[in-house]
Amino acid sequence: MKIVKETNWDVVIDFLRLNFSSPTHWPDWNLIVNKHFNTEFFYFCAYENKELVGICPVHKKKGNIFLLSVRSISLHSIWWLDFFQKCQS
């Protein structure tokens, strides 16, 4: 299995259309979270024999000292990252 950082939303959307997922896995939701919380957003895509077999949305947020990342996130998790970063300032 090969894990790849993916920013081509078309690849992700094609996969999501064929597989059940929660709304928080879709780019539309994650782009809103990205904009609101100022994160770096991308997906980790899992490939097996060149076939996409899984995706995981990732948000990274830099603090003063730490690089924080959350995978397969909820809004609550991003809120805590934002709060934690403000506490470091």
3D structure, described in words:
By secondary structure, the protein is of the alpha+beta class. It has one domain. The protein is 39% helix and 35% strand. The protein contains 3 helices and 4 strands, in the order βααβββα. A hairpin with a 2-residue loop joins strand 2 (40-48) and strand 3 (51-62). The longest helix is centred in the C-terminal third of the chain and has 14 residues, at 75-88. The relative contact order is 0.19. The mean pLDDT is 79.
Question: What fraction, in percent, of the residue positions are helical?
Answer: 25-40%
Q: Sheet bearing the most strands, described?
A: 4 strands, antiparallel
Reading the helices and strands in chain order gives EHHEEEH
Number of domains: 1
Enumerate the spans where pLDDT stays under 50 for 5 or more consecutive residues. Answer: none
Strand runs, count = 4
Strand content: 25-35%
Coarse structural class: alpha+beta
Side-by-side strand order of the widest sheet: 1-2-3-4
Question: In one word, what is the shape?
Answer: globular
| Nearest-integer average pLDDT | 79
Map the helices and strands.
Elements: E1 2-6, H1 9-18, H2 27-37, E2 40-48, E3 51-62, E4 67-71, H3 75-88
Antiparallel strand pairs: 1-2, 2-3, 3-4
